[in-house]
Amino acid sequence: MTGYCGVYRDVIEKTPMKPSVLLINPWIHDFAAYDLWYKPLGLLYLASILRRNGINVTFIDFLEDDPAMLFEPNIHMGKRKPDGDGSYAKQKIKKPLALKDIPRNFYRYGLTANILLNRFKKIPRPDAILISAMMTYWYPGLFDTISFVRHVYPGVPVVIGGNYVSLCLEHAAKSGADFLLPGAGEVSVPPLLKELLKIDIQILPDPDDLDSYPYPSFDLLKKPGSLPIMTSWGCPYRCSYCASYLLHPKFQRRNPGHVVDEIEHWYLRYGIRNFSFYDDALLVDSQEMAVPMLKEIIKRNLPLHFHCPNGLHIREVSEEIAMLMHKAGFKTIRFGFETSNLLRQKQTGAKVNNEEFVEAVKNLQKAGYASDDIGIYLLCGLPGQPADEIAESIRYVQSFGARPILAEYSPIPQTTLWPEAVASSPYPIAEEPLFQNNTLLACRSKSLTVETYQELKQRTRRSHS
């Protein structure tokens, strides 16, 4: 195996008395990748569940920062912002053969193999290895990670789960993993480990009660500058381009007071002042979750900043919500508007209309948010979407004093829009997940040329009308 040193005989081989499981957040291989307060939340929840059952858990994040990277050859170091987001360290690698004609450099994001080998030397030999898998088109990084750990720990069972496995199960069978676990890991992993490790795993959360879950094992992270907080799973909407309801068919919520308890816990324990929300429906039915949560944050006078890079539902932004968000410390606010085209709004799910958008922006401005604070995601490259529709959406958003942000469409298997995406793309997106990469604009219409796309990106950076 080229690029990785030796036979790894110096890796510790001793197995502790308790069963040991290694959790891994794998490399990313891509043209571009940026850390918007991302942490492998699912893995860290799973770590807490396993610990409750007497299993020794170790965790290695292939994407984290390490000062030793400064001494590694051919590395572009990442830069971290004070609020916790930033760029990953990266190393240029050879593009997959399928992408050879794409005129862009390809990178491995994360730690080098040498640094990872030093990490492995310091942990016990695991009885099983669990690896998460996020984006479908990031699978080369996952495959490389599997190959790497197999060389370090030959004979140890490798298990993979996550979004990629759930959405592309047949393709994931090519990964070299011993077990593929689609769906919720807290449901599928314990029975498998019970069989593999011959232990009785009984202390489990109730999948129908999110408040029964333990806090994630954030202590396994090395000096995090920010932490993610989960308030819900799933989404009541069924947008044609989104896989949320496929990954979490049931929309569930935590108690808002319990959410604030957790936020305060991490602030008091680690001094964390920046938190991110990746919920798909944080503001939906705001009187049930957002309003009481925001009021409680304000009541406790917590000096925190909150970031919502995933896109909030803009139709829910009442005058009350906008004021509470601003007072509670919501700094990075992004909203899913997708398009100002009325027909496409209906076709993609009808989760917002233009009147609701205008009202929400006015409420946010009244609350004290500046134009550049109000980030509005616009979908770019949908099947059959003409370039002038995107241009008009940009103009429309800017005309009301908000900031348009192009969100390049990534075709996702099993979604409602998937058949149309397959039919419209010149790439074999159904057979090769690499072509599902949003960088490629794999389903763009003929009018959305590369030059036009670059011009549209430039328009989003111009001053508001």
Mean pLDDT, all residues: 93
Rg of Cα set: 22 Å
CATH superfamily of the largest domain: Aldolase class I
Assign the CATH topology of the largest domain.
Answer: TIM Barrel
What count of helical segments does DSSP give? 15
Question: Major beta sheet, specifics?
Answer: 6 strands, parallel
Total tally of structural domains: 2
Which structural category fits the helices and strands? Answer: alpha/beta
Annotation, overall tally of beta strands? 18
The main sheet orders its strands as: 11-14-15-16-17-18
Uncertain spans, ≥5 residues at pLDDT below 50? 1-16
Question: SSE layout and pairings?
Answer:
Layout: E1 20-25, E2 28-30, E3 34-35, H1 41-52, E4 56-61, E5 86-87, E6 90-93, E7 106-109, H2 113-121, E8 128-133, H3 139-152, E9 158-162, H4 163-167, H5 169-172, E10 179-181, H6 185-197, E11 227-229, E12 232-233, H7 244-247, E13 252-253, H8 256-270, E14 274-277, H9 290-299, E15 305-312, H10 319-328, E16 330-338, H11 342-348, H12 354-367, E17 374-380, H13 387-399, E18 403-408, H14 418-424, H15 450-460
Parallel strand pairs: 1-4, 1-8, 8-9, 9-10, 11-14, 14-15, 15-16, 16-17, 17-18
Antiparallel strand pairs: 2-7, 3-5, 6-7, 12-13
Characteristic key phrases:
TIM Barrel; 2 domains; 15 helices; alpha/beta; Rossmann fold; disordered N terminus
What's a quick, concise take on this entry?
With 465 residues, the chain is an alpha/beta fold. It contains 15 helices and 18 strands.
